Batch of 2 targets.
Target 1
Amino acid sequence: MSTASSMSACTPQPDLAQTIGRGCGANVCKCYQCKKCSNGCPVAAYADLHPSQIMRAIQLGQVDLALDEKFIWLCTGCQTCTTRCPQGIDVAAVMDELRIIARREDRIPDGAALANVLRLNADSIKRWGRLYEVELVTRSLLGNRKKMKSYVPVGRQMMAKRKIRLLPELGDRAAVKRMVSSSERIAEANPTPLERGRGRGGYSHE
Amino acid sequence: MSKLLAYYPGCSLHGSAEELESSFKATADALEIELKEIPQWSCCGNTAVHSANRLLALALPTHELAKVEQDMQLDAVAIPCAGCFNRFATSNVESQEPEKAGHISDVVGREYNGSVAVHNLVDVYHDDVGLEELKARVTRPFQGLKVACYYGCLLTRPPKATLAGDPEYPTHMEEVAEALGCNPIDWNCKTDCCGSGLALCETAMVIELVHRLLRDARACGAEAIVCACPLCQMNLDTTQREIAKAHPDWEPIPIIYLSQLVGRAIEVEESMLGLKKLIVDARAVMA
Ligand code: SF4
Ligand code: SF4
C-alpha cells in the first residue's frame, strides 16, 4: 500500500514504453495519435481517459495517468483497438500489461470493481481447474449491497431458468497447479523495471 | 462423410450455457460430426488470466492443444464458446512464435507443434459440415425468419489469431442462417461489444451497450438475434427486463444460439434444443 507514494504522483518514468514493450511485445512508441482505437472503443465514453490518451501517457512516461485512472479496469478486452490500429500496435495487450503492472504495484484505483472480479475469477480457476460460476458470482457480489441489488434481476432469471450448476466441476487440478507455479516463477525471474525500482525480490535500481 | 473432431466444451457449457452444449452435440450428431471430448480438460483461463499472468494464459490452452495433437492424434478441435475459442486460437498462434515457444513449453511441460486447427461454432457448420451439405440436411426450413447475426468480439478479433477473413464485417454466420431458410438482415452492430464480464460489476454500462445494439437490430427489421457465445447470449438475454423497465415500449427480442437455429431446421429432438432455457421467449420465432 505504500507504493502509491513511493512511485510518487508526477515523476515521469521515461522508459515506461520500453517497460511495457518488454512485458507484452507491443511498441507504444509507434503510436501517432490517430485515435482509431479510441473511436472504436466501447467503453471510452465511460472513463476520463480513452485508449489513445493512455498510449500518449505511456509515451510521456506518465505512470500516474496510465495506472491510476479507472480506464484500464473498464476495458472489456474486445480487441477492436488491436484490430484497427494502423500502426499494428496490440493496444489491448498494452491494457493487459498495465493491469498486470497495476496489480503488482498494488495500484488499483478505488471503484475499479473489475479488478476484484478478475481476481476472484482467476482464484476459482486455480482452485478447481475450471471456473465455478456460482462461486464467482456470489463472491463478486458479497459485501457490496449496491452491486448485489443491481444483479438481483439477472440472478433471479438465471435461477428460474435453471441456468445454474450448483456444484463445481473439476479440471486437471494437478496440471493447473503446476502451470500456475511455473508461470509465476518465470514471471518473477523477469520483473519489469517498474518493479525493480521498488527493490522487489532483491533487485535494485541501476 | 463422417468427420472426427476433438471437442472442448469449456466451463460455461457445463454451467450457465447447457443449452448450447446440448444443441451443439445434437446437431453435430445429426450432421455426422463425431465429437471426442478432451479428457480431463481444464479452464481456458479467460480474461481473468490473460490480464494477470500472460504466460499462464497461453499455457492453459496450449496444454489442451498438446493433448489433442499427441494423445488424441486429431487435427482439429471444435470449441462452441467464443471466449474459449479466442483463447485457444491466440495460444495456437503465439505458442509457435520462437520468442515465446520456449517459456510456454516449459510451463506446459511438453512441446506442442501447432498442428491442431481451432474451429468455433460457426466454422463447424460453415466448414466442417459445409453449406451445401447443411442445406441438403434441412428438413424443416425457416420461412424467411429475419435474423440479425451477432458475432460480438471474440469470434473474429484479432484476425491474427482468429484467422477471420473480414473481422469487421464477417458473413459466415449469415451464410449458415441463409442455408437454413432464414433471411439474415444487414445491421450495424454485428461485431460490437456486449460488455462481456463487466456485467458483474458495471451493470449499468453493460445494459446501455446491449440496449444500443438490440435497438439497432430491431430498427433494421430483425425478429431474433443469433449468437455463438455464452457470454453474449447471457448479456443480451438477461438485460432485456431492465431495458423494458427504462423503456416501456421495448419489445423483447429473442437471443438464440446458432446451434439451436440449425437444430430446429434439421429437426433434432426438441428437448435437445433447450429453448426453455432462453429468457426472452423464443418459441414463437422457432415454431
Ligand atoms: S490506433 Fe494505434 S496509432 Fe492510432 S492512436 Fe490508437 S494506438 Fe495510436
Ligand atoms: S480492448 Fe479495451 S481498450 Fe481496446 S477497444 Fe476494447 S475496451 Fe477499448
Note: The domain at 141-286 of chain B is CATH 3.40.50.11810 (Rossmann fold).
Target 2
Amino acid sequence: MARIAVTVDGTAREADVEPRTLLVHWLRDDLGLVGTPVGCDTSNCGSCTVMIDGRSAKSCSLLAVQADGTQITTIQGAANGEWHPVQVAFKDCHALQCGYCTPGMVVAAIDLLSENPDPSEAEIREGLRGNLCRCTGYHNIVKAVQQASELMKEAAK
Amino acid sequence: MTATVEHVANIGRPLRRKEDARLLTGQTQWTDSIKLPGALHMTLVRSPVAHARITSVDKSAAEAMPNVVAVFTAADLGDLNARIPCVWPVTDDIVMPEFPVLAIDEVRHVGDVVAAVLATDAASAEDALEGVHVEYDTLPAVGDLEAALADGASLVHSSAGTNQCYTMNVPNGDYAAAKAASDVVVSRRFIQQRLIPSPMEPRAVAVSPMGTSGELTVWSATQIPHVLRVLLALSTGIPENRLRVIAPDVGGGFGAKLQLYREEILALVLANKLGRPVKWTETRSENMVATHHGRGQIQDIEIAATKDGILKGLKVTLTADMGAYLQIITPGIPLLGMFMYNGIYKMDAYDFSCTAVFTTKTPTDAYRGAGRPESTYAIERIMDELAAELGMDPLGLRRKNWITHEEFPYTTIAGLTYDTGNYEAATARALELFGYDELRAEQKRRRDSGDVVQLGIGVSTFTEMCGLAPSRTLGALKYVAGGWENCTIRVLPLGKVELVTGTSPHGQGHETAWSQIAADVIGVPVEDIEIIHGDTGRAPYGMDTYGSRSLAVGGQAILRAGEKVVEKAKLIAAHQMEANPDDLEFVDGAFRVKGDPERSTTIQAVAFEAFTAHNLPDGMEPTLSGESTVDPADFSFPHGTHLAAIEVDTETGKATVRKYVCVDDVGVQINPMIVEGQVHGGVAQGIGQALYEGAEYDDDGNLLTATLADYLIPSAADLPSFITDQTVTPSTTHPLGTKGVGEAGAIASTPAIINGVVDALRHLGVTDVTMPATPEAVWRTIVAAQSGAQA
Ligand code: FES
Ligand code: FES
C-alpha cells in the first residue's frame, strides 16, 4: 500500500492504494466517482479521460500512485457552479447519444480548447482522435467544440 | 389522426434532450457503477483456442487463492448449467446444437467459457483466473464457410454430423424465365465481412437476490430487459414473477445487447444459489470475442436485365456464418434481409436461397440493420455493376427501375407492400446538395489527365423495413415472440405525468421524443412528463428496443394511451361542467364548452378530480390513466438517397470520403435533431464497415483484431462532416406517420462508399473491392486489375 494525496474535483483526498491500482479504478471504486467510465483495456477509447493538473489524460493508463500530488478534475467536477461552455455546447448541438464517451469527450474537448482556443475542423478532429464515440459519427461533436470555442471567446470579451 | 394531435406544439421540434443533463455531468448509472454490499465479482475462464476437447480442469490453485469464494465448472454447475435457447428456428429441419452456458467437454471458439470464478473483489477474481488450469486437446478450427460445407470437413458439432445449420430456398416468380428474357446478366460475389458491434460501454450484469419482495433483481447492460426476463426464466427455470430485470443507463447497443448472454445466466443462477449478489463486468478484450458479432456472409448475386436496362430478375445465394453456436436470433438475421434484396426496384422474379454454416468463431447475431445492410449492399452494388455493363449512368438505371411515387402502395416481388415513398424527391434533393454534374465533370478531368488521385461517385438509393413487427408475420416466419409495444400514461393527482414505455433506450433519446408525443396528445408541458422505461418492475410490459421499432411501434402505443387518457378525462370534465361530452373541445390541455369559453377546465384539474373521486360520473373508476398495447398493422419503409464523393490515391490505395450527402425520408419526425443524430451515427458505422472494420481470424481460429488498436472503429479524424437533409413522406400504416431511423444510415452508407471507390477506379479495370477497403486492399485491387486478374 502506498499513501497518496490528490485533490479530486476540488476535494483533498488522502488514501492508501495498492501500487497496481489504476487511477480510473481508484476514482470509481474507492472514491465512488463513477461518472468516469471505462471503455477498454488497451488505452484506445478515451472514455476514462480526466484532467490532471490541467491537461487531459487517460485515467486507465496511469496508476493511482502516479497521481500523487496532482489536481484531478473529472466530468463530475467539470461544472464550476454552472456548466462549462463545452457541456452547454454538447447539449445544444446534440453531441451525445448514449453518453458513454461523453465524460471523456468533454474533458478532452476542454483540454483541446485550452491549447487552441480557435481550432479548425481538421484540428478538432485530429485533437479528439484518441476519444472514440460509436453513436454520433462525431459530426455534432465537432460542431459542439466549435460552438464552445465561440462561447468561450464571447465570455472572454 | 385524432383531434388531439392537430394542435401540434412539440412534435416536429428539435427540442434539446432531457437525458443530457445527467449524461453531461457524470450523474449516470451504468451497470458497472452499481455497487451491491457483499457482492461477489465474477470472472470467466475462457478458451484461448478455437476448438478443443477439454481433457482436464484443475481449479484447486484458484480455490486456494485469497478472497476466492468458489470456482464453478460445467460439472460443478450440473443442472444449473442452463442452455441458451435459439428463438428463431427458421426451418423445420434446422440444426440447433446445444449451447451450454459453461462448455461441456468441448470448446468451440476463442472466448468460449470453461469456468466461472467468484471472489470478494474484482482484482482477486481476475488473479484467480491464472489458478484454473485447463488442458485442451486441440481439434481442427473451422473457419472457411465453403470448406466447412465440403465432404469430410472437420465438424464444429460432431454430434450434428454436419456444419450446415440450415438451407432454404424461397423463389418469387420464375427466375429462369426472367433470365431467359434478359439480354444482360451480371454476377458478382460480395463478401460481408464479420463486424464487431463495439458499443462504447462493454456489457455488465449485476444480480441481487435481496429484492424487497424476495425477487431476484438483475441489472444488465441490455437493450431488452423485458425479453431478457422471459428468456432468463425460460432458460433457468426461475419463475418469471421472481425476476425483475433493469436496464439502467446503457451505453449503446447496436444489436450487440439484443441478446441473452451466458454471463447473464451465470450471474443469476450463482447469485440465486449462493444467496449473495454477483457482479460481472466485461473487459473490452472479452467483448471482442464474447459479445456476438455481426454480418459474416458470402453473397453470390446475379442480376438479369434487358439491354435497355429494364430489370427482369435477381438471384441471391447466401452462405451465412452462424459462428460456433446459435444465439437467440442468429439464424434469422439473413431472413431479415431476404425481404429487401430487391430494394426499391420492380422486377419479375427474385430467387433467394441461404445456407447457414457453423464455424469455430464467436456467434453472429444482430448488428445495426441486421440483414438489411447486407441486402442493400448487394442490390446497390450490383446495380452499379449492371449500369457499368450497360454503359448507363448508375442513377439513370435506378430511375428506370424504381417504384415511382404514383405507384404506392406497391407490393414488391419479395411480397412486402411498401405503403409509401418518394424516391424521385429524395434523389432530386440529394443531387442538388451534392453537385452531381460538377463532380462528374471533375471525375472526367482527373481521368483524362491521369491524376494520381482519382474521384469516384457512389450512389445508394435504399429502403429498409422498420417497425418490427406485426406479430402474425413474425409467427409465420417461425419467430417465437410477438412484435407489439405497450404504453401507460398516468396523470398523477397534482398534474404531473408518468409515461411508462416498453421500449428500452440506450442513446436514442426516448425520454425526450416520447415526452414530445405525449405532450401534444394530452396537452401538458414536455417538462411535466417523466418517462419510465427499462425496468420490468416499473414498466412491466414491453418488447424493447431494436430494429428501428421503438418509435414506429412504441409511438403508436403512446398515441393510443394518450387518447385513452383524453377520452376518460373528457367524460369527467363534461360531468364536472354539466355539459355534454360532445359539446367539449380539447385544446392545449383544456376542455372547453364550445361556444362558451367561460366554462373550461384543465386536464390537471380533471386528474385531481379523478384522484379524489368525490364527483365522478356514475360507474366511472377513479384515477386518470390510459394503457395501450399496439400490434403494428404493417412494417414501415424509410428510404433515402445517399451520395458519396470518394477520392482514391492510386499510388497508396487510400480512399478518402470527400463529401457525403444523404437525404432520408423517415416519415413524420418527432424530433428532427435526434433524427439527424441517428443518421450521422448510422452513416459513420456504415463507413466503418466500408473502409475500416473487419474481424480477422487466422487459420487456427484466433481473432487477430482482438483489441480496439487492431479493430478500427472510426475516430473523428477518419470521418468527414455529413450533409444531411430530409424529405417527408408520412407512413400510411399508422396514425403517427413515422417510419424509423435507427438503422437507415448504417444500411445506406456502406454501398455508397464502395460504389464510390469502385467508380474511382473502374477505368483501371476494377470491378469490385473487398471490405474493408483499406489502403492495402485497394492498392492490391488496383495492381491485380492492371495485371488483368480482375475481370
Ligand atoms: S478506458 Fe479506454 S482509454 Fe481508458
Ligand atoms: S454518445 Fe455513445 S459512444 Fe459517444
Note: Residues 85-156 of chain A form a domain with the DNA polymerase; domain 1 fold (CATH 1.10.150.120).
